[in-house]
Task: structure prediction
Amino acid sequence: MQQHEIHRFLERYFVANGCDLVANGNGYMTVQLTVDLDKELMNRPFYWHYLEKTGGTPNPMTLSLVTNQENAPDDFKGELIHFGSPRLHQIFHSTRTLAGYIRLYENQPFTNGQGVPLQPWLGLNIKLSYQCNRKKDSIRSIGLNLINGGIQEDFHSFLLSKSLTPKIPDFTFTLTPIIKPKSGINRIQSYLHEGLKQETYEWADEARKKWDEDLRLLNHFYGDQEEKPESYYLEQQALKEQYEPKVSIDIINGGIFYLQQTH
Result:
């Protein structure tokens, strides 16, 4: 997962959860947390327990993050965040509890007084993980039109160009999906699988070569023993877990979005 992908993911995460981006530059951001996100991220249970007991005024914290040390201002003080950092994994985990699913409607001014149809879209934010002795992650945002099956890459950016509301606007009506959401999830997964088939996998070939080399060393070490001890099989399994190439697809969150038809 590249640093600019992390930055964009964090922008989406904080905005979707109602936070204000006090500062948002190339490689850094400062976020004014909501009460819910302060409770979720900042580990202040005693503060919130005391506040609830006394009825005091809540004062959620700000959080400053650095996503690119080279681009952030020298005088900017923030927590360095990268893939593998505890803070980022904490945020990944919280997306499942705070924003696992959402339903929004496009809200545009309508002047003709006629009902405007809104087409249902399934939107998923997905993490692709490439794993062997090294690991790389990529965040994908995919939209699927549940009427005609059309696919929209970078769906989150597509949504940012629209005004969305949790309540259906006046003078609009929703179209019934032809493709059910469960089937839509399967279609998006199939779309990603087809894309993965087109990629090159030199990293997997290199991992297998290294795996073979270490396996030969292991066999050489135990080569004179007719019956291998348990330690041999444990080390053999450890090599498999370390080097075996695999790609996993994990859904971070998603939603149904009712949007006007685009021409």
Residues 106 and 164 are 5 Å apart (CA to CA). The longest strand covers residues 116-131.
